[in-house]
């Protein structure tokens, strides 16, 4: 039985959506138990409403404090009984195989650092979401998506190594191709960071390094892994999200202005469904904090059920494929 | 009569497209003369094919050398008679009011630096393209889009000042709103660069500074001007371009798989035309090098006629609105 702790208190919308998402996900995962970490009364009131819940598939770990979206990173030290803190402690104490939270990113990063620490050799863990690509069934692992403001070339090199292990173990990619985000594809482009990372990545023959990739190529599925610093990564990812959302919204709004277009949109329903399925960010709403000494995931706090279920799936896949042990081995730790 | 020098040799596709674009643009601009800078024989052979060309609206400045896309920045010093070099010299010698090129970016930046120099107080000119937004008729000026790898907070502050002058003079915006690209909107987010730039921008009450903007908001038309460093700017812009292109391509490809969807697309033709018109990057294919001591524009080398015409329009608008003099005044130079 795999065990995952779910901090259900951090999400913007309260624990209801989080608990419902977990119950939805559990339906088809008979080898999984979820530990709901949070306010017992609130969690139980959601559970009471649900039928067909297998009581052997969940536990409640009752906590009395919450670090909300406006909380500070120091709350991790101040609020000993916060759901986020307790969920991380369950990972540390090996009571669970992994955890996820929809809560405060800063507190999550600080909590992971203080409670779990990092894998030896890693100084700055990175957020690694996946995003869908134009190639059917292919996702790209992208990091750092914003856990850090600054990264060193060594960080980027370590990200490539950890993500390669993850890609092999969890996604089953045999020889994951690695790209380095830059403003051009020719050698010599970019800042010292990119040039130094290029050297490290080229020197390690165990990596399938493909060179620089421009952000306009990111979604084409040209590589399995894209590494960059947390600042650029956050800028690139949000630009993609914003553009995709705005384009689809604009198409919808323009359709509504004309009867003929509405008829057309009806006939094109299958197309939009397909495109949405392909590029839906809600199906990629979570990110592992890679480099942390534990399997810990951050989900968007504004998630709906689809978003939380996608993060639960990623956490489950990482746990089931024993990715932490494999990453430790890759980093030379037995 | 306004005079603009057009380096027609730099483009990937040869001078034909460039000359044809200029003739197309000249049709409705009777107060403009274009100086074609490049190989006389090639230019004349394109001109011969065209009817209805008013010979008082163009001149040819014959050159014997070319700096192509693979040229180095040192070619600016080595190739004295390169079309790019001559076009920049025409600006310096006040033979023309401005110039544009579809050529090599690196050589263009080096040439502008050596031949024109910068406005006093400016150390790193920036590429400033415009991009369309969700707000009908509103474009956002965006800089630096990649002229530099690194920028200081002072650069970003100067960009805000120059772009504000440009927005007022060329776009007629009364009080242009300025945003600073960052990974979050709260004060304290980002690197030292963003924090220091925030201070400078907040302190100058002549600017209409609106604070940090995330890249997912860029296309919403939330501000008139977005400033950032050249590395992040390039990443953000290309991510937007790539996403927009890929989404529309995917919709098209998915439509082609089904007869019903094809019928739907036919009925939705007006919608796609409208969306394409709104977000067509080809209508925004040029960028002024702002901070250079002259009105100089870079157009994509891979442009078609639509792309070059859009850059010609921007150059013409900048020249006609005397933007260099206004920027000099803003920077305290009479």
UniProtKB/TrEMBL annotation, chains A, B:
EC number: 2.3.1.274
A Pfam entry, by short name: FA_synthesis
Subcellular location: Cytoplasm
Statement: the UniProt record of this protein carries the keyword Transcription regulation: no
Predominant subcellular localization, coarse grouping: cytoplasm
GO CC term (a single one): cytoplasm
One Gene Ontology molecular-function label: phosphate:acyl-[acyl carrier protein] acyltransferase activity
Keywords: Acyltransferase, Cytoplasm, Lipid biosynthesis, Lipid metabolism, Phospholipid biosynthesis, Phospholipid metabolism, Transferase
Gene3D superfamilies: Isopropylmalate Dehydrogenase
Pathway assigned in UniProt: Lipid metabolism; phospholipid metabolism
GO biological process: fatty acid biosynthetic process; phospholipid biosynthetic process
Enzyme class: transferase
Reactions performed catalytically: a fatty acyl-[ACP] + phosphate = an acyl phosphate + holo-[ACP]
Protein family membership: Belongs to the PlsX family.
Complex and partners: Homodimer. Probably interacts with PlsY.
HAMAP family: PlsX
Biological function: Catalyzes the reversible formation of acyl-phosphate (acyl-PO(4)) from acyl-[acyl-carrier-protein] (acyl-ACP). This enzyme utilizes acyl-ACP as fatty acyl donor, but not acyl-CoA.
Protein name, UniProt field: Phosphate acyltransferase
Organism: Williamsoniiplasma lucivorax
Gene that encodes it: plsX
């Amino acid at each position: 039985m795999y065990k995952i702790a779910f901090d259900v208190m951090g999400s913007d919308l309260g624990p209801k959506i989080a608990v419902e998402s977990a119950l939805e996900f559990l339906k088809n995962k008979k080898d999984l138990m979820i530990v709901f970490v949070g306010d017992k009364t609130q969690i139980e009131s959601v559970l009471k409403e649900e039928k067909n819940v297998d009581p052997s598939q969940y536990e409640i770990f009752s906590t009395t404090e919450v670090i909300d979206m406006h909380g500070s990173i120091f709350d991790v030290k101040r609020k000993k009984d916060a759901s986020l803190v307790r969920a991380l402690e369950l990972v540390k104490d090996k009571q669970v195989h992994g955890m996820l939270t929809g809560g405060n990113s800063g507190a999550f990063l600080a909590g992971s650092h203080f409670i779990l620490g990092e894998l030896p050799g890693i100084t700055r863990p990175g957020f690694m979401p996946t995003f869908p690509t134009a190639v059917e069934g292919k996702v790209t692992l992208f990091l750092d998506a914003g856990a850090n403001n600054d990264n060193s070339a060594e960080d980027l090199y370590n990200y490539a190594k950890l993500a390669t292990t993850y890609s092999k173990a969890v996604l089953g990619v045999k020889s994951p191709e690695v790209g380095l985000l830059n403003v051009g594809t020719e050698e010599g482009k970019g800042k010292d960071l990119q040039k130094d990372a290029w050297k490290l990545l080229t020197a390690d023959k165990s990596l399938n390094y493909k060179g620089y990739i421009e952000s306009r190529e990111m979604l084409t599925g040209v590589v399995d892994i894209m590494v960059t610093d947390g600042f650029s990564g956050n800028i690139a990812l949000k630009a993609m999200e914003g553009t995709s959302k705005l384009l689809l919204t604009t198409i919808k709004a323009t359709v509504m202005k004309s009867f003929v277009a509405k008829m057309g949109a009806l006939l094109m329903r299958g197309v939009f469904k397909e495109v949405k399925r392909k590029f839906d960010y809600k199906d990629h709403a979570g990110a592992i904090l890679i480099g942390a000494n534990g399997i810990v995931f951050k989900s968007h706090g504004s998630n709906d059920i689809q978003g939380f279920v996608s993060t639960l799936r990623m956490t489950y896949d990482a746990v089931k494929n024993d990715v932490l042990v494999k990453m430790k081995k890759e980093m030379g730790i037995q």
